[in-house]
Design goal:
With 305 residues, the protein is α/β, with parallel strands linked by helices. The chain folds into two domains: 209 residues, Ribonuclease Z/Hydroxyacylglutathione hydrolase-like (Metallo-beta-lactamase, Chain A); 66 residues, 3-Layer(aba) Sandwich (Rossmann fold), CATH 3.40.50. The protein contains eight helices and eleven strands. The protein has a six-stranded mixed beta sheet. A five-stranded mixed beta sheet has the order 7-8-9-10-11, with no helix packed on it. Strand 9 and strand 10 form a beta hairpin. The termini are far apart. The structure holds zinc ion.
């Protein structure tokens, strides 16, 4: 029986916004694009425990668009299941994964310890960790960082190019040139996309052509109005400072925290808000900010250290 030349199977991020995973099969070879963790309500997170639909040892390559855990956080589990394939990502993504994946492993271990100590409670989660910090470190050893813009030959059937996505440091659109047996085809996976003319991140690059386009659409149904962003933030800071309060801003550690730090400093430099102490209560966000400072290629900022 002859194999179909190429098939694409959606293994996650369908009906929910996390757990991005796409399986591309070409002439019997297997490539996993994105390796995300399901995150959110318990029913969604439980999907991380479902058997992976193919043998992890049978994968020929994994490609990651960026470091956020809903696109990368299943990689240590896949490593624990026997992954032997190389994992392609950008240099910025590899740097960020160096802090994000071991941290995710520690959280899995802590959650499992908590569950084991309270195993008699109803609705308590699994008492084994999905993966450990050690699994995460072994996953990091599989990373093959590649420069944005350069074609990388994965094997004789598939080549890969990362294009800047403007979402977070290292984030990329994944462009695959695939020999399907019916001539070359270009598959494009958008990953998470940033906007244009942002303060911190450079604009997403234009991808000229695709035979198949898989595009994220989490915020695809709304128009973002950023025109009053500075006025609104300045007003909130003033109002809080005037009554001697403390402004607590919940923010994702990678991406959002750096945007907010930049805006606060810009407003302060322009004399639009008072100079107040700013604390980042997250070792991970602090580490990620340092990586932003060291890795200039993806953002607009000039950093004098
Ligand atoms: Zn993301």
């Amino acid at each position: 029986m002859s194999l179909p030349p190429a098939t694409l199977t959606f293994l996650g991020a369908v009906g929910t916004v996390t757990g991005s995973r796409y399986l591309l099969e070409v002439s019997g070879r297997r490539y996993l694009i994105e390796c995300g963790l399901f995150q959110g309500p318990e029913a969604v997170e439980r999907r991380n425990w479902e058997p992976f639909p193919v043998d992890a040892r049978s994968l020929d390559a994994v490609v990651l668009s960026h470091a956020h855990i809903d696109h990368s956080g299943y990689l240590p589990r896949l490593t624990a299941l026997g992954l032997r394939a190389p994992v392609f990502c950008t240099e910025g993504t590899a740097l960020l994964l160096g802090i994000l994946l071991p941290d995710a492993g520690r959280i899995q271990e802590e959650d499992a310890r908590f569950a084991a100590a309270h195993a008699d409670r109803e609705g308590i989660g699994p008492t084994d960790p999905l993966y450990t910090e050690e699994d995460a470190r072994r996953a990091l050893a599989r990373l093959r960082p590649a420069a944005i813009g350069a074609w990388v030959v994965i094997d004789d059937l598939v080549s890969l190019r990362f294009r800047r996505a403007g979402h977070i440091l290292g984030s990329a659109i994944v462009e695959l040139r695939v020999d399907t047996g019916n001539g070359p085809q270009t598959l494009v996976f958008s990953g998470d996309l940033g906007g244009y003319q942002r303060d911190v991140m450079r604009d997403p690059e234009t991808v000229e052509a695709a035979d198949v386009l898989v595009v994220e659409s989490t915020y695809g149904d709304r128009t973002q109005d950023r025109s009053h962003l500075r006025e609104e933030l300045a007003a909130i800071v003033h109002e809080t400072a005037a009554r001697g309060g403390v402004l607590v801003i919940p923010a994702f550690a990678v991406g959002r925290t750096q945007d907010i730090l930049y805006l606060l400093r810009e407003l302060e430099d322009a004399g639009r808000i008072p100079a107040l102490p700013v604390f980042v209560d997250s070792p991970m966000a602090t580490d990620a900010t340092e990586i932003y400072c060291l890795h200039h290629a993806d953002h607009n900022l000039r950093v004098d250290l």
